[in-house]
Automatic annotation (TrEMBL):
InterPro entries: MoCF_Sase_C, MOSC_domain, Pyrv_Knase-like_insert_dom_sf. PANTHER family: METAL-SULFUR CLUSTER BIOSYNTHESIS PROTEINS YUAD-RELATED, MOSC DOMAIN-CONTAINING PROTEIN. One of its GO terms (molecular function) is pyridoxal phosphate binding. Residues 18-168 form the MOSC domain. This is MOSC domain-containing protein.
Length: 180
């Protein structure tokens, strides 16, 4: 399963949306250089308030741009970076990856997928009704999260729109993604 990076985004402030950039630099064990969520320990405000010593399993947030087309069909205009992701991809079933899947981005960067983004009410603050589009329930009543995946940086490097994305699955048995 291979794809392409379609946008990269970062913001030094703890804002909901992140502006698009020409490139970002990933730092091993840290995240996106200069981004508010970069760090070896948790950086998301709610998690810092609970326990600032937790490891940061949410260093880099990725969303497949295919979600934007689905949201558009439901009446919501969303562009890359607006849901707070750092990397927007095309052609990779991010939500179908198992825990520990490796994503190679561009010439050097390597990410390890840690879990699903757990969307919060800020999504409805951005566009009322959007939260229900990215969090739903399946036929069995289980919660389905569609707002992207979170990862940690194993090997740093630059990432730009147009860079290839290569997926490597971990040895089985595979564990499905859960919220992190």
């Amino acid at each position: 399963m291979n794809g392409i990076v379609t946008a990269v985004s970062s913001d030094p402030e703890h804002a909901f949306s992140k502006p698009n950039r020409d490139r970002i630099t990933l730092l091993a064990g840290i995240g996106v250089d200069g981004d508010a969520h970069a760090g070896a320990r948790v950086q998301h405000r709610s998690r810092v308030a609970r326990d600032p010593s937790q490891p940061n399993l949410r260093q880099v947030h990725l969303i497949g741009e295919e979600l934007f087309a689905e949201l558009d069909a439901a009446g919501f205009a969303v562009a890359p970076g607006e849901l707070g992701e750092n990397v927007t991809t095309r052609g990779v079933d991010l939500l179908g990856l198992p825990v520990g899947a490796v994503l190679r981005l561009g010439p050097a960067a390597v990410l390890e997928v840690t879990g699903l983004r757990n969307p919060c009410r800020q999504i409805d603050d951005f566009q009322p009704g959007l939260l229900k589009q990215v969090v739903d329930r399946d036929a069995a009543g289980d919660v389905v999260r569609r707002a992207g995946v979170m990862s940690i940086v194993r090997v740093g490097g630059p990432v730009r729109p147009g860079d290839p994305v290569t997926v490597e699955l971990p040895a089985g048995p595979h564990r499905p993604l859960e919220r992190v």
